[in-house]
TrEMBL record:
InterPro entries xrefs: YjdM, YjdM_C, YjdM_N
SUPFAM superfamilies, alphabetized: Prokaryotic SH3-related domain, Zinc beta-ribbon
Record organism: Romboutsia sedimentorum
Residues of the Protein YjdM C-terminal domain: 44-114
UniProt-recorded name of the protein: Zinc ribbon domain-containing protein YjdM
NCBIfam families: phnA (TIGR00686)
Domain Protein YjdM N-terminal: 4-32
Length: 114
């Protein structure tokens, strides 16, 4: 059996592979196993420079107009369980669901970590 690294969040030794991700069954943390120490991968940061991770909660820091909708996303809207999309060509590197709008993509430059 191959040696998989311990969970970086809770240090559990019971990690397993699920496709290209490693998963911890104790704390449900998921991460990818890159070559090296992982520091050279795409790091997505919020407007304040904090590193964002999948599953984080963020807060919108300015009013956002939504194409195709008469309403907008107001400042202070809290978004839970974000999913990061590194390398998005249009700059929208966060996928999430917002109550009243549904699935939407956001730029990391308009959110702060909650």
């Amino acid at each position: 059996m191959e040696n998989l690294p311990n969970c970086p969040k809770c240090n559990s030794e019971y990690t397993y592979e699920d496709g290209s991700l490693l998963v911890c069954p104790e704390c449900s943390h998921e991460w990818s196993l890159e070559s090296g120490n992982g520091e050279d991968t795409d790091v997505i940061k919020d407007a304040n420079g904090n590193i964002l991770n999948d599953g984080d909660a963020v807060t919108v820091i300015k009013d956002l107009k939504v194409k195709g909708s008469s309403s907008s996303i107001k400042i202070g809207t809290k978004v839970k369980s974000i999913r990061l999309v590194p390398g998005a060509s249009d700059g929208h590197d966060i996928e999430c669901k917002i109550d009243g709008f549904g699935a939407i993509k956001l730029k990391s430059s308009v959110v702060k970590k909650a």
